[in-house]
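anyone else get weird line breaks when pasting these?? whatever heres mine. first is seq + tokens for prot A
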Amino acid sequence: MTNIEVIQEFYRSFREKDDEAFRQICSDDLEWIDEGFPHRAMHKGADAVFERVCQGQSGQWEGVTYHIEKILESGSAVVVFGHYEDSHQVAQKAAKAAHVYDIRDRKVCRFRMFADSHPMWEAMSTFSGNGVSQSFC
């Protein structure tokens, strides 16, 4: 499996909440860093990431999807360019984001997100009064 295929499987398992496949594609010491994002955090370990990010935010970001535009590979790093889009169309524009992955032994060992968080913060302030919930997972 190439590094790009590892990342494609990572997105599939995350999107489909495939716990077993997610844990197999991630290293035990996985680092998840999304500092600029609403509900920003750093998580350590595949179990913590799956439980806190995917299952932990279930329902909170429902309707928000990450659309991949381009995937680039350089050595053990894979960079994915894309944008988050809100199917409820509360946010007026898509939020651009780059996901940077480090791969070790055909497993994701670090995820870092760099995002235009302004549209997300605007959408969250709109959600506070209308009961709409969202999930990235």
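and prot B, same format (seq, then tokens)
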Amino acid sequence: IKIVRRNLIVLIKTRARITELAQLTKVFIKNIILEKILFTSKYITNLKNYT
């Protein structure tokens, strides 16, 4: 029973770490996309680019 319990704790910790990493990656990807959108819209609205 002790071995099973220890394995379960390790499994839960591992899953928590993976979930945390996934969330960080999601936030990172959102930031990249937002940055791209802002940069593109800034470029489009800059009138100097059309003259």
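btw re prot B: The mean pLDDT is 80. Residues 2-45 form the longest helix (44 residues).
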